[in-house]
Amino acid sequence: MPEFLDLLAEQLEQDGIATGGQDLFISDYPEGAPDACTVIRLSGGTDEKDLPIQYQVIQIMTRDPGFQVAYERAFVIYRYLFGDTQAGKWLPRHNFKIGVTREAYVLTCSALQLPSDIGKDEAGRSEVSFNIRFVVRLS
Asked: What's the predicted TM-score (pTM) here?
């Protein structure tokens, strides 16, 4: 479901999290991408044979010359997608639409791990990554 990446990128841009083509990219860091940026890419998924849903796993990767900035950038997206704490309770996101030009309906999403240090890239920039699993209703 590669179009799901486009819808997710549109939603992140609309909500002021990142800007497509400037600091948000799909699938890979393009040549000339800034030091501080984010990539979203497919990490796996399956269709449910008996229900009109799809399980989609997305990897979010951020990079920055400084680890703390890369981590904070990843954690903003983590909280935005997975949920946040309010009044001492975790409030997961579920039953929401993503996309601007088209829409997908997310039944649930769950992070598979916290944003984690994956080391430095070839240019010495810190990279942070996490995976998030979406359950998406198919049209």
From this structure: 0.88
